[in-house]
């Protein structure tokens, strides 16, 4: 007997279906729920139109300080009692801030979800926000950011963002602010942000076995005491590219790796090119067998991993390649990376590569969406981007039907090798001279 | 408001489990769940860095990389292309105990996943080349730089292990290995490593999700049945230890770190024992969540520790007493000495102050959620069953873990703390900001 020599053919595919979605309007707000029969855990996310983009200039990080202040006690109980009540249900509060939204999430065994949502709403709607607590949380956040910024990456990210979005106010600054802007956040800023943006009903997303969940009761818990109409979304920022490539050095003395962040602006999430752009980026730097990972990791051994992707929010988009490469090969790694981006821009993708990208992206819709948390996140995307309940079925079909021509055209339209900003965070004493070949070199101001 | 209490779990694994063993010794575990059209294929090989002899640290993990570089009927790079190109997610991990490989696929590709796994179990050696080894050695050295060398405190785990376990102990060295040993790795050693350990009788194949047991058993025979068993696989060095460390150990590091930080660690009990269940509950009482003692007393109460960087956790190792790790980072203006005194007080409180009902219920509720989260995906379930089959000989034993946690009493926690958390057996690792000496 020997090993089976030939690759088996696939069996019959079961049709794809996103979990059944149920919507109710009750108690002044909307609940969007996905039914996951048999799931023991359930997740809920209170989604509020209170993203970082709503912060005041110079006070970037206000929403994050608020998110971290929510658990410092509510009008009903102090912080210790709150922690005990929520964690006694097996739940932990997961407040988060992104460009488009402020989320307050909880997960718990199904029968305990209503209690967890009640407590999450209590923190989101009626936090105590004692000035001394808020000031302490702010100071702790400054320290936490300094800890984070001591790692490779955040300073390079900030330098790239500052360069790409320099003329776009809030979008030119890091999502969670930097140590300086957070230090400038006042108690009044935090209270005002809460008052202005966290008291509208928002939307409650629920994922779990709905046979055991009372959506009306969840709505009551989430929306009690709220008022106000949904906000009008602001328009996209547009795509502005510089007229030539530039390089920014972020010095990190003694670093054994150089952290690369190469990027330029791209359309926002609503672009009709979303699917072909995603597939082009998958071929270039998304899949393990992508052009970048194959060359830079698997052939050259310069890195543990390299990724290229488009990140798109409601108002903005950007293309980015990210990697950590051994210091000694910084210039060769950048050269090879630029070569693969340029090749993709000029020549597009091949059918063989696209076939991998299509199937992978389509398959991920079932493979990576198994948990209540993942499904609740998928529901949130529907709300943030105004997509219909059957969107994931449509998306899957669009992935599978994308043609080489369409994806190659998207690569040509939305990659711009000669207008990239190259941010390199590494040991300046070693790498500065060799960066000159990549265009105007400047030192980062971060 | 009266808070409802967590439901009492009668089983932590309410899905079917069926098992068989092929003639070549491969154990096959199947857990059918037709809810979603996905299936996970998971292989646990009972080999990890604990098997590495001196001079070969990092070899088990470097070998894991080589398993993705082609085999007898799978060309270089084709493995990843076939899994992702058919919609799947895949990965592999190596730790001191074992190496696991897993892919979750749309279920019509079950057979493909089994074929790929069988080909690299039975046919890796003919495809292994010097070029592949040289390339992946560089990738792993970059992994070491990225994860351990280029980040503040990144080497803590590398420093803790030799303080916790004596020279020659299978957990004395870290899985990532040393640069020197990685540089010395030669091709023949890896060929021999595969022939020795990557045997059907040293592995458990687990399939979870949209597939039935009869179908999987037949496919396992079809794809893996031809692979010969390896007789007399040598065990790893014995990890038995006489008890907690006989004396404390301490290392003080000055490095480019942003704030003073402390790691306290103890050898406790092997994963899977009642002692370790008590330690799991204890770690949650001590350092998991805002209601934990560490958070309440040092981050919230005394306000000497940074709230985002305080906690305690056990590392679930089964072949010797597993470590409990406790860590805290000083707030601005707080000295290492103040922080260490605070940490020591909280550690002592586990012996002096009985765990209250509220603390115990909180810990058990969090562990209950964590358990259900772990088994909420086909991949999480498959890895859990593979672990219990490999380490305890019975995948169904996984169903008991949650109930065993919930059965732990306050007395159990105190007894465990008294036995293994005394300062006399403590490992202390401190970091101070400054120029490395």
From TrEMBL, chain A:
Domain of life (superkingdom): Bacteria
One Pfam entry name: Peptidase_M16_C
UniProt cross-references to InterPro entries, sorted A to Z: Metalloenz_LuxS/M16 (IPR011249), MPP/UQCRC_Complex (IPR050361), Pept_M16_N (IPR011765), Peptidase_M16_C (IPR007863)
Residue span(s) of domain Peptidase M16 C-terminal: 185-358
Location of the Peptidase M16 N-terminal domain: 31-146
Stored SUPFAM superfamilies: LuxS/MPP-like metallohydrolase
Protein name in UniProt: Insulinase family protein
Provenance organism: Actinoplanes flavus
Automatic annotation (TrEMBL), chain B:
Residue span(s) of domain Peptidase M16 N-terminal: 28-146
Residue span(s) of domain Peptidase M16 C-terminal: 186-367
Entry-linked SUPFAM superfamilies: LuxS/MPP-like metallohydrolase
Superkingdom of the organism of origin: Bacteria
Pfam families, sorted: Peptidase_M16, Peptidase_M16_C
PANTHER family: METALLOPROTEASE, MITOCHONDRIAL-PROCESSING PEPTIDASE SUBUNIT ALPHA
Family stated for the protein in its record: Belongs to the peptidase M16 family.
Protein name as it appears in the record: Insulinase family protein
């Amino acid at each position: 007997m020997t090993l089976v020599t030939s690759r088996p053919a696939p069996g019959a595919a079961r049709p794809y279906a996103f979990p059944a979605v149920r919507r109710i309007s009750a108690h002044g707000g909307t609940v969007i729920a996905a039914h996951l029969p048999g799931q023991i855990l359930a997740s809920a996310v209170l989604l509020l139109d209170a993203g970082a983009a709503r912060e005041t200039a110079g006070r970037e990080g206000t929403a994050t300080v608020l998110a971290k202040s929510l658990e410092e006690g509510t009008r009903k109980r102090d912080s210790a009692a709150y922690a005990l009540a929520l964690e006694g249900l097996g739940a932990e509060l997961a407040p988060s801030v992104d460009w488009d939204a402020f989320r307050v999430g909880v997960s718990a065994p199904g029968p305990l979800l209503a209690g967890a949502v009640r407590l999450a709403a209590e923190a989101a709607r009626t936090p105590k926000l004692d000035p001394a607590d808020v000031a302490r949380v702010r100071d702790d956040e400054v320290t936490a950011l300094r800890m984070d910024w001591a790692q490779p990456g955040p300073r390079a990210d900030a330098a790239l963002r500052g360069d790409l979005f320099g003329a776009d106010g809030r979008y030119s600054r890091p999502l969670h602010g930097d140590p300086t802007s957070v230090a400038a956040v006042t108690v009044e800023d935090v209270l005002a942000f809460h008052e202005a943006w966290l008291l509208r009903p928002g939307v409650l997303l629920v994922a779990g076995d709905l046979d055991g969940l009372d959506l009306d009761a969840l709505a009551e818990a989430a929306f009690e005491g709220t008022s106000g109409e949904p906000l009008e979304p602001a328009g996209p920022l547009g795509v502005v590219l510089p007229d030539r490539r530039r390089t920014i050095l972020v010095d990190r003395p003694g670093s054994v790796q150089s952290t690369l962040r190469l990027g330029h602006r791209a359309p926002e999430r609503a672009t009709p090119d979303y699917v072909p752009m995603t597939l082009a980026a998958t071929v270039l730097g998304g899949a393990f067998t992508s052009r970048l990972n194959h060359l830079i990791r698997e052939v050259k051994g310069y890195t543990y991993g390299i990724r290229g992707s488009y990140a798109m929010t409601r108002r903005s988009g950007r293309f980015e390649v990210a990697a950590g490469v051994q210091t000694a090969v910084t210039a060769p790694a950048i050269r090879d990376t630029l070569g693969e981006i340029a090749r993709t821009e000029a020549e597009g993708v091949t059918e063989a590569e696209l076939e991998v990208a299509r199937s992978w992206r389509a398959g991920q819709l079932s493979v990576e969406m198994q948990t209540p948390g993942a499904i609740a996140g998928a529901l949130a995307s529907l709300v943030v981007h105004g997509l219909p309940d059957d969107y994931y079925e449509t998306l899957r079909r669009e992935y599978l039907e994308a043609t080489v021509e369409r994806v190659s055209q998207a690569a040509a339209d939305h990659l711009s090798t000669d207008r990239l900003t190259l941010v390199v965070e590494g040991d300046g004493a070693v790498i500065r001279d060799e960066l000159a070949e990549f265009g105007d070199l400047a030192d980062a101001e971060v | 408001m009266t808070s409802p209490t967590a439901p009492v779990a009668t089983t932590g694994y309410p899905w079917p489990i069926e098992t068989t063993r092929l003639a070549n010794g491969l154990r096959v575990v199947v857990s059918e769940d037709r809810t979603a059209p996905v299936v996970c294929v998971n292989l646990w090989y009972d080999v990890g860095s604990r098997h590495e002899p001196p001079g070969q640290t990092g070899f088990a993990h470097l070998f894991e990389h080589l398993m993705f570089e082609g085999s007898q009927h799978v060309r270089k790079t084709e493995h990843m292309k076939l899994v992702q190109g058919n919609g799947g997610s895949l990965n592999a991990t190596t730790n001191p105990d074992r190496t696991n490989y897993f892919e979750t696929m749309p279920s019509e590709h079950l057979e493909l996943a089994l074929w790929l796994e069988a080909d690299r179990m039975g046919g890796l050696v003919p495809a292994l080349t010097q070029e592949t080894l040289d390339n992946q050695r560089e990738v792993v050295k970059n992994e070491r730089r990225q994860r351990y060398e280029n980040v503040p405190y990144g080497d803590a785990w590398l420093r803790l292990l030799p303080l916790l376990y004596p020279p020659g102990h299978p957990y004395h060295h870290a899985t990532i290995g040393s640069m020197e040993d990685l540089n010395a790795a030669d091709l023949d050693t890896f060929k021999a490593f595969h022939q020795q350990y990557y045997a059907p009788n040293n592995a458990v194949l687990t399939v979870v999700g949209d597939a039935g047991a009869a179908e999987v058993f037949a496919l396992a025979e079809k794809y893996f049945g031809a692979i010969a068993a390896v007789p007399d696989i040598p065990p790893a060095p014995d990890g038995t230890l006489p008890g907690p460390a006989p004396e404390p150990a301490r290392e003080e590091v000055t490095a480019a770190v942003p704030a003073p930080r402390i790691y306290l660690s103890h050898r406790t009990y092997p994963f899977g024992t009642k002692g370790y269940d008590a330690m799991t509950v204890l770690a949650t009482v001590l350092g998991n969540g805002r209601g934990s003692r560490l958070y309440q007393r040092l981050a919230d109460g005394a306000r000497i520790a940074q709230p985002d960087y305080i906690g305690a956790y056990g590392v679930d190792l089964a072949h010797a007493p597993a470590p409990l790790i406790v860590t805290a980072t000083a707030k601005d203006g707080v000295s290492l000495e103040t922080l260490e005194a605070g940490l020591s007080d909280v550690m002592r409180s586990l012996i002096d102050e009985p765990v209250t009902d509220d603390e115990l219920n909180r810990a058990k509720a969090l562990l209950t959620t964590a358990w259900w989260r772990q088994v909420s995906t086909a991949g999480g379930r498959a890895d859990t069953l593979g672990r219990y089959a490999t380490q305890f000989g019975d995948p169904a034993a996984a169903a008991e873990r949650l109930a065993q946690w919930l059965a732990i009493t306050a007395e159990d926690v105190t007894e465990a703390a008294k036995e293994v958390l005394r300062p006399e057996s403590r490992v202390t690792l401190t970091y101070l900001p400054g120029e490395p000496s």
